[in-house]
Each structure stands twice: as C-alpha cells, then as structure tokens.
Amino acid sequence: MPEGPSIVILKDLIKDLHLGKPEILEVEGSAKNLDKDRLLHEKIQDFKSWGKHFLICFKDFTLRIHFMLFGTYLINAHKKTKLTLGLAFKNDELNFYTCKVDLLEGNVKEHYNWENDIMAEEWNSRAAIKKLKEMPEALVCDVLLDQHIFSGVGNIIKNEVLYRIKVHPLNKIEDLPPAKVKALVKEARNYSFDFLKWKKENTLSKHWEVYSQKECPRKHPITKKELGKTHRQTYYCGKCQKLYQQN
C-alpha cells in the first residue's frame, strides 16, 4: 500500500500536467459509481494529496483515488492490468489500476482536514498529541496507523518510527512517558520526510533498520508478528525497544 510520501511523489510527477488546467478529452476504465460523462471536457483545477489519498480537483467536485494494497499508476503509458480509470488530455494521459475511485461533491476542503496529514504544511503536532491522550488504552502500533491522527503513515513508517524512538509496539499510550509521546509524534513526521527523500533517491530499503530485517543495527534479532487491532505485520527489537508498564 503506498504511504503518504509516495502519494506526494505522484503529485510532484504530474505537476507539469496541471499547468494550463488541462481538459479531459477521454475517460476509460471499470471504476464503479462514477459518471464518466461528467468528467468529459472538465478542466482540472489542482492535484492534491491527503495521507494515502490522491485527489484530482475540479471546480465543483473532486476525484479521490485510493490505491488500497496493490494499486498502481502510469503516466503516458499503459499496462495489461485491467484499467480502473484512465484520463486522456491533449498531450498527456493518467492511468490508474487496482484502486478505488470516489467522487466527492463540493469543495475538497469540506472533506479533509490537512492538520492530520503528516506531510502537509498544515500538520498540527499539538492536535495529534491531544488525540493520543484521549485514547490512553490504545496500542502505539495501532495509533500510528490511525489515519485520523497520522494521515499518510503506513506500515513501513510505523515500524521504523517505533524503532527510531526505541518504543515497543505493544505499549499503551497511557504507559508512555510524556517525552516519548512527543517523540512519537515528532518522528512520525520526520521519518515521513526521510522516506520521501530516500524514495526519490530509490534508496528507501537500504535505510530500513527493522522493517523486513532479521536483525537490528545493534545485531539483535528482530521479532516479526501481527500485532494490535489492525493485525498488521510488525517488526521490532525486543532488546532495543522498551515495553513500559504502570507501577
């Protein structure tokens, strides 16, 4: 599943397409619950990202693309996989595969709060800390994947952030020292921008310290388990990452 930084990369890749507000000349694909005729001859006003969502903004509505687990895209190219949505312009085309497409009526700002977006300029760390304090029983491995708090954080970022701050994934929020709660929020954003940099350099996997690793940088064995309510695969070091408990 693409994480927030990957959606930012997509937005940057097609920023030149935005110049001149391109008009849609052809619409193809198997996307359901979408009136393709409504898109014809509409002009794109902007491309945005929010968390794991890629947003194509028009005057009165927005197309939301969610890549789910296996979604992909191609710019000015095709592949044999069944096309979910294809948009053709005078000089360019965008093709989306194995994804979910929704149409959001009205202004996109009515649907999203960019204070929750880990990559956005509007990101609000104080709001994130406040939300964490309101869910004391939640596990840290779950809250990092909560898109209402950390929009854009996915499983890679979750694992790497928890190792970076040396916190065991089964800690409850209420058991963490206040400094660790702040570190959790701070490093979720910091690592997301490191992810973006490394992804652009095509070196992301070279920087993984626990994700898909057999041992941590200190040569301790890595444990791999499905943890939390999300049951997502979690990689952690039982020696480096501390499990806090109330007295």
Automatic annotation (TrEMBL):
This protein's record includes keyword Amino-acid biosynthesis: no
SMART domains, sorted: Fapy_DNA_glyco (SM00898), H2TH (SM01232)
Similarity comment text for this entry: Belongs to the FPG family.
UniProt domain Formamidopyrimidine-DNA glycosylase H2TH DNA-binding: residue ranges: 114-196
Keyword DNA repair: yes
Identification of the protein by name: Endonuclease
Domain called Formamidopyrimidine-DNA glycosylase catalytic: residue spans: 2-100
Keyword line: DNA damage, DNA repair, DNA-binding, Endonuclease, Glycosidase, Hydrolase, Lyase, Multifunctional enzyme, Nuclease
Biological process (GO), any one: base-excision repair
SUPFAM superfamilies xrefs: N-terminal domain of MutM-like DNA repair proteins, S13-like H2TH domain
One Pfam family per UniProt: H2TH
InterPro entries: FPG_cat, FPG_N, H2TH_FPG, Ribosomal_uS13-like_H2TH
GO molecular function, one term: zinc ion binding
Catalytic activity of the protein: Hydrolysis of DNA containing ring-opened 7-methylguanine residues, releasing 2,6-diamino-4-hydroxy-5-(N-methyl)formamidopyrimidine
